[in-house]
Specification:
alpha/beta, nine-stranded mixed β-sheet, two-stranded parallel sheet, extended, binds 2-acetamido-2-deoxy-beta-D-glucopyranose
Length: 406
């Protein structure tokens, strides 16, 4: 009897599993079933969102790994838009996205991805938009980064890329929009861009490009190919003020997606506001994003220390003056005092100027140690991704937790 009741409950559960988990907001967006589980310290994609979800956001959680078949095994096959931005993903199984046949828009920005196999998106044949910005792709091999026939929009903004190997984009025949701005590129071989025959928009901007004849030629070539591109090197070498102006000029025109895509396609595909251009950050927001609290604290401490030293110095001089320090009489004595004063000034100057010699580099997020992913797709993963997590109250899941629990 009890067993029967149990079975009935189980079957009810599996057929009527339509409640929205507590951590999520469920609603519809342009007729699509949307579940938004944002900023909830979630550690795995198995949150209990009903299988029918089509727009699924798990942004700002603490997911660190995407296991093979972790969506498929939970029955998520209708997802069209998947947002995993601002997690701590450093490992993605080769078949992690298996079953997501309808996935159009995948957002993996602001994670800790260093490496992924180039055929990882074969399981998602409909993928149009891929956002990989703010990951750590600093060691790129001379091989295709991604192999995908349909992908149209690829964002590699702020991925610490130092150079673009020639074969990087050879397997993206339909790529139309590419963003590789805010990386550490100082040279660019045109052979990287040549395979992208359909490219019609390119973002390259960073602060490291030398505006030399070579780079001006590259810009000219890009524009001559009919690619929408905003030149930032002038014909002549820019004067300093022009250079500063062009650095300050972060405003970007919003891209009209209608110029790129066929918007008369089926109504129920995806919400186009998602493809809207990321808003350019104001310098303050940029600062905010690039500086961790620790760095801010260290810098604040240094400034405070410097001010303290100067104030003490001034105060000491004043007090000394009031007490009418005896002025040395003999010329030799006076010279000695002056030399001591010089020495003290020198030390003070050193203390003020070189206080930051032991502090970490303040550029970007190099301060945060970043766990490294293995360079093969075998499941020999370290658990080091969990140690340096700002929001790590919840421990990450054991390896098998992605499996359905019943
Ligand atoms: C598209 O869907 C909206 C509702 O989401 C509807 O109002 C509109 O008529 C549809 N357009 C077409 C062309 O089917
Ligand atoms: C846009 O897509 C619709 C339906 O998918 C198709 O009928 C139409 O010819 C396409 N238009 C262009 C300009 O490609
Ligand atoms: C639009 O979608 C519906 C169901 O999602 C499908 O039956 C129909 O064939 C689609 N139309 C086009 C033009 O793709
Ligand atoms: C894109 O954003 C702009 C404002 O930033 C807004 O006016 C426009 O409607 C948005 N486009 C879509 C398709 O949501
Ligand atoms: C990906 O997520 C980030 C952060 O939530 C957002 O700024 C960006 O616009 C998203 N990218 C796409 C293509 O939707």
């Amino acid at each position: 009897m009890l067993l029967l009741l149990f079975i009935v409950i189980l079957s009810l559960d599996s057929t009527l599993c339509v409640s929205c988990p507590k951590q999520c907001d469920c609603d519809t967006e342009n007729g699509l079933n949307k579940a938004s589980c944002v900023d909830q310290n979630i550690v795995s994609v198995a949150v209990g969102v009903p299988k029918q979800v089509q727009v699924y956001s798990l942004s700002r959680n603490v997911i660190s790994e995407l296991d093979n078949f972790c969506f498929k095994e939970l029955g998520y096959t209708s997802i069209q838009v998947l947002d995993l931005s601002y997690n701590q993903i450093f490992w993605i199984g080769l078949h992690a996205f298996s079953g997501l046949d309808q996935l159009v828009d995948l957002n993996l920005s602001n994670n800790r991805i260093r490496y992924f196999p180039s055929d990882i998106f074969w399981d998602t044949p409909q993928l149009d938009i891929l956002d990989l910005s703010s990951n750590i792709l600093e060691t790129l091999k001379n091989e295709p980064l991604i192999m995908h026939n349909k992908l149209q929009v690829l964002n590699l903004n702020s991925c610490r890329i130092k150079s673009l190997p020639d074969r990087l984009f050879t397997r993206l025949p339909n790529l139309k929009k590419l963003d590789i701005s805010e990386n550490y590129l100082v040279t660019l071989s045109l052979d990287v861009l040549r395979p992208l025959r359909k490219l019609n928009r390119l973002e390259l901007r960073n602060d490291y490009w030398p505006c030399n004849a070579n780079f001006i030629a590259i810009e000219t070539w890009i524009v001559s190919r009919g690619i929408a591109y905003e030149k930032f090197c002038k014909k002549k070498l820019p004067t300093m003020s022009e250079k500063i102006m062009s650095m300050l000029h972060v405003e970007r025109k919003p891209v009209d997606i209608g110029e790129i895509w066929n918007l008369t396609a089926n109504n129920t595909t995806i919400d186009l506001s998602i493809c809207n251009e990321t808003k350019p950050l104001t310098p303050f927001q940029k600062f905010d994003r690039n500086f961790s609290a620790l760095q801010a604290f260290v810098i604040g401490l240094e400034i405070g220390l410097a001010i303290g030293i100067i104030a003490t110095y001034v105060w000491l001089r004043r007090v000394c003056g009031q007490l009418r320090c005896r002025r040395p009489q003999s010329r030799r004595e006076r010279r000695r005092v002056r030399r001591e004063g010089d020495m003290r000034n020198h030390l003070l100057w050193n203390a003020v100027v070189h206080t930051n010699m032991e502090t970490p580099p303040i550029y970007r997020r190099q301060v945060l140690p970043v766990p490294s992913a293995p360079f093969n797709s075998q499941p020999t993963r370290g658990r080091e991704g969990n140690t340096n997590v700002e929001r790590s109250e919840t421990p990450p899941p054991p390896y098998h937790e992605c499996r359905p629990s019943g």
